Amino acid sequence: MRVLVVEDDPTIAGAVTEALRLAGHEVDHTERGGPVVRSVEKDHYDLAILDLGLPDMDGLVVLRELRAMKLPIPVLVITARDAIEDRVRGLEEGADDYMIKPFALPEMLARVNALHRRWLSTRGDRLVNGALILELASRRATLSGESLELPTREWQVLECLIRRVEKVVSKEEINTALSQDGEALSDNAVEVYVSRLRAKLEHSGIEIRTVRGFGYMLEAAD
Ligand code: CA
C-alpha cells in the first residue's frame, strides 16, 4: 500500500513511518496539512494517517477537504485530543477510524490493514447486483451467498454486463473486452458464454436479456 502520514511530532511520525515501512508499505510523510489534498489527488495513496493538531491547520479541515473532493481514500485519524466531542466530530467529518495517542504500533498496523480491506470490499473492488456479487481482486463470484464457478471468459462477459446494469451492452463491446489478450474469438463466442451464464443465473432473480440487433442487458428478472 502507499500510505501518506500527516503528523508534525517527529517522534511519532518517525515511529509510524518506520513501522509501516517494515510492514512492507511505501510511505510518504508531511508535517503540514496544506499540501495533503493535492498530494492525495496527484499521488494515488491507498490510505492516509492524519494527525488533528497540525502546525498550519486543523486536521479536521484537511479531512473535510478530502471528503468534499470525494477522494476515495480511507483515513485513520490519530490525535492527542481525547475529548469525546472531538472524537465524535472527527468521525462525523469522515474519518474511517480513530486512534488516541499514545497507541501501540502493532495495533495501528492492524487497523491500517483492516481499513484497507474494508475499503476494498465496499468501494472499488466489488460489483453487486441483487444476489450477484463479483469481487474483483480475488475474482470470486457469489450468487445468493453460494460460490459461483466462472471460467475466465464467462467472468469477463458478466463483468461487462454488471458494470452497466439495466443498460444495453453491445456484442462488439463484449467482444472487445474478451479479445484484450489478443486471442481472436469466433462470431458466436459471446452467444455461447451468455447462454452458459443464463443457465447459471436461472432462478436467481437476475437475467441477461437479449436486445435484438444491439446486444445484451443484465436486469432484474420479471
Ligand atoms: Ca500534532
Key terms for this structure?
binds calcium ion, four-stranded antiparallel β-sheet, 41% helix, 23% strand, five-stranded parallel β-sheet, alpha/beta, 222 residues
Write up this protein.
The chain has helices spanning 10-22, 36-43, 59-68, 84-92, 105-122, 152-162, 171-178, 189-201; strands at residues 2-6, 26-30, 47-51, 75-79, 97-100, 126-129, 132-135, 140-143, 146-147, 169-170, 206-211, 215-220. It is α/β, with parallel strands linked by helices and 222 residues long. Strands 2-1-3-4-5 form a five-stranded parallel beta sheet, sandwiched between helices. It has a four-stranded antiparallel beta sheet with strand order 6-7-8-9. A hairpin with a 4-residue loop joins β7 and β8 (140-143). α1 (10-22) packs across α5, α6 (152-162) crosses α7 (171-178) and α6 packs across α8 (189-201). It is elongated, with a radius of gyration of 23 Å. It binds calcium ion. Calcium ion is lined by residues 8-9, 51, 53-54.
Structure classification: alpha/beta
Number of helical regions? 8
Low-confidence spans: none
Please provide the ordered H/E string of secondary-structure elements. Answer: EHEHEHEHEHEEEEHEHHEE
Radius of gyration: 23 Å
Q: What is the mean pLDDT?
A: 87
- What is the topology, as strand order, of the major beta sheet? 2-1-3-4-5
Distinct ligand kinds: calcium ion
Number of strands: 12
First and last CA, distance: 43 Å
What is the beta-strand fraction? Answer: 15-25%
Q: Roughly how much helix do the residues carry, as a percent range?
A: 40-55%
Shape: elongated
Reported for the largest beta sheet, the result is: 5 strands, parallel
